[in-house]
Amino acid sequence: MGAHGQGLHGSEATTAGFEYTFPAIRGVQAGREYYVSMCPLRLIPRIFLFDEDELAPEVRAQRVLNKGRVPALARYILENPDDYVFSALTASVDGAMRFVGVSDQGPGMRVGQLHIPMASQFLINDGQHRRAAIETALKENPALGDETIAVVFFHDAGLERSQQMFADLNRHAVRPARSIGVLYDHRDELSQLTRLLALKCPVFRNFVEMESSNLSARSRKLFTLSALYSATSALLQGLELKSSKEAEQLSWGFWEAVDDLIPDWGEVRRKALSAAEVRKQDLHTHGIALHAIGLLGNTLLHESLDPEEWKPRLTPLRDVDWSRTNPEWEGRAIIGGRVSKNHQNVVLTVNHLRLQLGLELSTEEKQAEDAYQRGER
């Protein structure tokens, strides 16, 4: 990418008359020309703008930047400089773009240089969080500035068109199921541990849905990978473990201990019960129950990592009535006959299990329990 001027003098020497030159490929969509180029990362924060937060939604061309997402995206780049990956940015340009092909005919007409006046505005239609993360990462590691990101340039046809582009770009964007995110994430140690449990641990082997985060009514699986991930995360949270091997042994041993106290899991493995039947009638395979059991185990493991101490304290789990018809679950794990897993429901579900085990409730849990008992559900 280069820039040059066209003979300005004195006070006229502003961005007027200067232009950016991008190596680009020209394409056509819906009868409109667009261009794809590779831009150095250092250029991204300098020329690509997004709407100010204070503008009303109806006069913005995209959603407000969620600043909470930016640090995590920036860390992702900084912590994985050898294998991070960002998809292309999409931008509208309100200046007069001029494309010069490398030849006058044939395939070369599609490859050339895109000239854009420096006075133009570049508005990001898709990728404003990536842009902000790049800006943050560059401050900490300027060397990243020599790397590139693909940018798709469209001519800015006004606010209405830009808003429509944002809607169209996001209309069919479907976030992948959390289970497949865990399955494919080889960087996160907890994802690796969860996959190991799902594929090797006798409790879960052959009974975990590895791709979807929802089980169909006829599925022969008992659990989803995303539910096992959340539950194991809750189990190990805040524990001072020496190695990933210790985390593996601890979580493996914990889920085997739980398995001994929920006979239905073994009955399904032995084909005495069907997975579909158990999921329909009981709560213990659902994500909210696994998460609550994980939180329960976390409390016990914080007090002692010795199985001889925490295993006996789990024993009352054997007497829990997991049936979905148990009125104790209504308002806790079940709302209007449907399993619900928002934060409050998880708290109330783990409360019930803590009381079964004779454990004390935290301040937040006690407040939630008091409200539940008063009927404020």
UniProtKB/TrEMBL annotation:
Pfam families: DndB (PF14072). It comes from the Bacteria. This is DNA sulfur modification protein DndB.
